[in-house]
Each structure stands twice: as C-alpha cells, then as structure tokens.
Amino acid sequence: MNEEVSLEELLAESAEELSRPIQEKHLTVSIGSMPGLKLTGSRVMHSRAVGNLFENVVKYNRDYGTISISARKEAGKIIMRMADTGIGTPKEEISRIFEPFYRVDKSRSRAMGGSGLELPLVKDILEKHGGNITVKSTR
Q1: What does the alpha-carbon distance between residue 74 and residue 48 come to, in Å, rounded to a whole number?
Q2: 79 has a pLDDT exceeding 70
C-alpha cells in the first residue's frame, strides 16, 4: 500500500484499454498534462479505481461526445476531475450510486452491462487510500 503510481500512466493505460469503445462511440478524449502527479498506495487498486471511472464515462457517454480529464495537487492531495457529455445522473439519485448493485436506469444498465459494483468499488478503494469521490450532474 505504499507504492508511488503515476496518475498520468494509469490514465494512459485506461485509455488504451478502452480504445475500442472510445472509437466505436467516436468520443473525443482530452487528458490534461499532469507531470509528476503520483498516487501513493496499491498500484493494482489505483488502476482499478481509475479504470472503472474511465470506463463509466465512456459507457454512459453519447456518440460523438467528449471526455475531459484533469488533475492538480491541492493541499497535499490530488484532485482529479472527469467531465463528460454523457446521460448524466438525476440529482435525486446521486446519493445512491455508490450503493452496491444500485443502478439508476435498470433497463439501460442491463443493456449496457455492468453489475452496479463499479462505483462502490471505486469509492471503497479511494477511502482505503484516504481519499473520497463526489459527483455532480446537470441532469
């Protein structure tokens, strides 16, 4: 749990793994420069968290949409922001998306795959590393 992991490398690896669905949906992905930003902890767990978040913004984005990822260091913590042109989450549902097996749109989730465990896993990994996650939606 004390490895130093480059955030830029994790995002590049995730982008490579998701290149097919990104191309199929004709998404434009912009990853800001973040030289020297390193996460401390388990590389495997950080990779899973970043990968799950990235996969989520790809999966629930619209065709020809955009994804913008940026990060900065603030008060000793890394703040990462993922913004997309996806379907959004109703404001009244945001507090529940980190509950295991919860799906906002049950019919769409079944068609798109997923178990409802991705975001709870991300939250758990971040909390184990002293971090947290928040979601904002315009829907």
Answers
A1: 23
A2: yes
The Cα 121–Cα 114 span in angstroms is 12
Contact call for residues 71 and 126 (beta carbons, < 8 A):
no
- Please tell me the distance from the alpha carbon of residue 45 to that of residue 131, in angstroms, as a whole number: 13
- Map out the domains of the chain with their CATH numbers: 3-128 (3.30.565.10)
First vs last Cα of the chain: how many Å apart?
Answer: 37
Strand order of the β-sheet with 77-84 is: 28-31, 66-74, 77-84
5-42 residue pLDDT tens = 999 999 999 999 999 999 999 999 999 999 899 999 99
83/25 Cα distance (integer angstroms): 16
Taking a C-beta distance cutoff of 8 angstroms, is the pair 52, 119 a contact? yes
